[in-house]
Write a structure and sequence with these properties.
183 residues; six-stranded mixed β-sheet
Length: 183
């Protein structure tokens, strides 16, 4: 077992940052304000989301809090991931501030999380979620960014971090990048 695997396994706080899976394009000519919010997952997006659920199950991630953008594609991504966490259902919250936002605003949402939550998954959108992953991975003392992250943060990409301190008190110095899945 590697030091990172051991760190992840023993960590008191785990954070998964994930971009929604691939969505269908908005209907041609649909210029309504909420057209982007109503975009569902594509068939490939559904397959990718199910795979991410299996990936999280494989690394033993059991969230106690799920923060999700209100868009249809993020909600469907969460639903397609399935019950990878077993019978310990997490607290699921839909957070308007996670839609079309910056890395800084996503971090603000995390800083508002109650300390009782130790294992959190955030489902959001680019560029904010990808920028936050790159920022945290770069500051986390993980050396150079993983090659996968240097290519961007595509749909269904996911990065897993761990820490010894609560997320609402974390200034990156205690955070470690465990794994990035960007395929």
């Amino acid at each position: 077992m590697s030091d990172l695997d051991e760190g992840w396994r023993r960590a008191s706080h785990r954070l998964v940052l994930m971009r929604h899976a691939q969505a269908q394009p908005a209907a041609f000519g649909d210029f309504a304000m909420d057209a982007d919010l109503r975009r569902p997952l594509s068939a490939q997006g559904r397959r990718s989301a199910r795979q991410r659920g299996r990936d999280l199950h494989g690394i033993g991630f059991v969230p106690d809090l799920v923060l999700i953008s209100p868009s249809l594609r993020t909600r469907e991504t969460w639903a397609e991931m399935g019950s990878f966490f077993g019978d310990r259902a997490p607290d699921v919250q839909y957070v308007n501030a996670l839609y079309e936002t910056s890395a800084e605003h996503i971090r603000d949402v995390l800083w508002e999380v109650d300390e009782k939550y130790c294992n959190i998954i955030v489902l959001s959108h680019n560029p904010g979620i990808g920028n936050l992953v790159v920022e945290l991975a770069g500051r986390a003392g993980s050396g150079s960014l993983l090659p996968a992250l240097s290519l961007g943060f595509p749909p269904a990409a996911m990065a897993c971090f761990f820490s010894a301190i609560p997320w609402n008190n974390n200034w990156n110095s205690e955070m470690k990048l465990y794994r990035a899945m960007c395929d």
